[in-house]
Amino acid sequence: MSTENEGAAVPADQGAPSTPPTPPATPATPPAPAAPPSAPPAQPPATTQEPIPAEPAAATQQPTPAPTSAPTPAPASPPASEQPTAIQAPLTETTAPLPPTPQPTPAQAQTAAQTPAHAHAHAHSPAPAAGGWPPAPPATPAWGAPAAPVPEAPRKRGGGLVAAVLVAALVAGGVGGGIGYWAASQRDDSAASTTVSSGDAPSSFKRDPGTVAAIAAKALPSVVTIQAKSGGVEGEGGTGTGFVYDKEGHIVTNNHVVASAAEGGTLSATFSNGKTYDAEVVGRAEGYDVAVLKLKNAPGNLTPLPLGDSDKVAVGDSTIAIGAPFGLSNTVTTGIISAKNRPVASGDGAGGKNSYMSALQTDASINPGNSGGPLLDASGAVIGINSAIQSTGSGFGQSQAGSIGLGFAIPVNQAKNVAEQLIKTGKPVYPVIGAVVNMQDRGEGATIAEQGTGGTPSITPNGPAAKAGLKPGDVITGFGDHQIDSGPTLISEIWTHQPGDSVKITYERAGKPATTTVTLGERTGDN
Fold first, then answer.
1. Which of 55, 265, 300, 398 is 20 to 30 A removed from 44 (C-alpha atoms)?
2. Where is the PDZ domain (predicted)?
3. pLDDT value at 409 more than 50
C-alpha cells in the first residue's frame, strides 16, 4: 500500500529559478561592489519577482542574476482521495431471527481490499545544468541525498490521509508493524527514536482468569462456524454459529441456521484452529428454534462448553457473545443482560413456522451470523443461545439488518432440555394447555378462540384447559408469576415449562377475574 509520503521526491529549492541564469563573464568570485553612494541608487527596472527561499542560500550575498524565463509554477495539488460516505438506508422497524449470513463473492472482497489511497505527489523540476552552474546552495542537500532533514511541506491532502488511515485500520494486524518501521526510517537517523520495540514490553504480563480475553481464549476452541448449503441446483445457504455440547461431537445451534440444508443439503463446522468437519442433522425443533448436529469423524479432544443456570441470571450481569457476524468467524462482543423473560416471536422468513421464546435480552452486539452461538456469563458458562435481534432496518451495504443493541437469546435451561430430547429421539416435545388462543390481539391478554382451525373445538375435550374449567372467550392474563398480554407471550411462557408441570392461571370471564390451576400436557414433533 502507499501512504502520503511514500516515494515522494525531496522538494527542490524553491528559491532557485526554473532555468539557470546566464553566468557572468568571469565565473570566479564577482568583484567587490563599489563604495555605497551617498544617495540611494535608482529603483531598478521592474522584473519578474523571484520566489523567496525558505532558507538563506549562503552567508555572503551574491548578485542576483536576471532570470531568463519565469519560474515554473509548482504543480497543482492532486485531488483529495475520495472519502467513504456512509449511506443510511431507510429505517423500518423489523423483528426477525438472525439469518445465516450469505457469503460475499470474491469480487466484492477484492474490491474492498483494493480501495486506492492516492498518495504520490509528482514534483516536476528540471535538473541542474552541466558544468557546475549554478552551484548547489550550501544549505540545501543535493537531490535525493539523505543529509540534513528537509522541512516537511504543509499537508493539503486531508482526503488522501483519511483514506489511508481507513485502510490501515482494516488491515492493521497485517501491516501495522511495517508502517511503524517505515515511518521511523524516514526520520533523521541522528534523532532519538521514540518507537518501543516488542522486546521492551514486560515479559511477565499475564491476563487475569476473569478477564474477557481469558474467557474468550478458553471458549473459542469450542465454538464453530457452520456452513449450510441447500440441496438445490444453486446450493444456496449461509453462515451461522454453534458450540460443542458434548465429547461425542454434538453441536447445538439454531434451527434456522441449518433449515436450508436439512433436506438433502450439506453442513460443515469449522473450528477456530481452521479445521473443518462435515456434519449431519440429529434433530430440529422449529418452535424452539433449536437444532443439534453431529460431527462426522469428530476429533477426540473436544471440549464442551460449560452450561450455566439461566434462571439465576440477573439484569445487569455481564455477557459475552461469540459468533460469526456477517461471516466474520470467531468474533467476540460484550454487554450485559438488559432484561429477562422478554417474549419474542420470530420467523425464519422462508415460510417456516414461528418460534417462541421467553428470551434473555442483551446489548452485546449480535448480528446475522451470530445465530446459534453461545451467550456466556462472566465465568464463561453458557447462559443462552443467540437467536434474534430487533432492528431498525437494513444496514449499509447489506441486505440484512444489523445490531442496535437489542439482541435476544434462548435461555440455556430451555435449550438444554430441547437438546437432550433431540439427541435421544430426534424429535422435540412441547408442553401444551390444550386450547387455541388468538395470536393477533395484544395488550388485553390471550383470548381463547371461539373455535379452532377448520371448525374444530378451540378447547381439546378432556385436555388440560378443559379439566381446569377454561372456556372459549376466556382471557388469560397471568401464567404463573408472569403477566400475559398476548397469545405469543402465553406460548413463550408455556414453553419454559415441562409437560406435567402444574401452573396457576389468572383469567377473566365476562369481565370478572378468576384463577385456576392447569396441568400441562404434551405434543411430540413440529407437525
1. 55
2. 431-520
3. yes
Query: Over the range 429-460, which residues count as b (16 or more CB within 10 Å of their CB) and which as e?
Result: bbbbbbbbbbbeeeeebbbbbeeeeeeebbbb
**Known catalytic residues?**
256, 289, 371
Q: What pLDDT, on the 0 to 100 scale, is given for residue 365?
A: 92
Q: What is the residue-wise DSSP string for 458-478?
A: SB-TTSHHHHTT--TT-EEEE
Q: Report the candidate in 224, 364, 206 with the shortest Cα–Cα distance to residue 292.
A: 224
Residues in Cβ contact with 125 at an 8 Å cutoff, skipping those fewer than 6 apart: 12, 18, 72
Averaging pLDDT over each range in 51-55, 159-163, 256-260, 351-355, which range is the top one? 256-260
Cβ atoms of 357 and 371 within 8 Å: the answer is: no
Cβ atoms of 96 and 389 within 8 Å: the answer is yes
| DSSP-assigned beta bridge partners for residue 280 | 294
- Residue 160 has which C-alpha cell? 488522501
Angle between helices 172-185 and 158-170 (to 10 degrees): 130
What pLDDT was estimated at residue 152? 52
pLDDT value of position 214: 93
Q: What is the mean pLDDT of residues 70-95?
A: 40
User: Cell 497485517 maps to which residue?
Assistant: 174
Four-CA torsion 484, 345, 281, 402, nearest 10 degrees: -140
**End-to-end CA, the chain:** 57
Separation between Cα atoms, residue 59 and residue 48, nearest integer Å: 24
Alpha-carbon gap, residue 163 to 182, rounded angstroms? 18
Taking each continuous run of H as one helix and of E as one strand, the counts in the chain are: 8, 20
Cα pseudo-dihedral 424, 425, 427, 431, rounded to 10: -70
Which residues pair with residue 359 across a beta bridge? 342
pLDDT exceeds 80 at position 348: no
- Considering only CA atoms, which of 268, 287, 320 is closest in space to residue 100? 268
CA 168 – CA 115 distance, rounded (Å): 11
Contact assessment for residue 297 and residue 274, using Cβ atoms and an 8 Å cutoff: no
pLDDT of 159 > 60? The answer is: no
Which amino acid belongs to residue 223? V
Q: Tell me the CB-side half-sphere exposure of residue 524, using CA atoms within 13 A.
A: 6
Query: What does each C-alpha distance from 505 to 449, 480, 495, 511, 513 come to in angstroms?
Result: 17, 6, 15, 16, 11
> For every residue of 75-132, which 3-state class applies, written as one string?
CCCCCCCCCCCCCCCCCCCEEEECCCECCCCHHHHHHHHCCCCCCCCCCCCCCCCCCC
> What are the helix (H) ranges across 101-209?
106-113, 158-170, 172-185
CA dist., res. 185 & res. 19, Å (int): 34
Beta carbons of 433 and 521 less than 8 angstroms apart = yes
Q: Confidence class of residue 444 from pLDDT cuts 50, 70 and 90?
A: confident
Mean pLDDT over each residue of the chain, to the nearest integer = 72
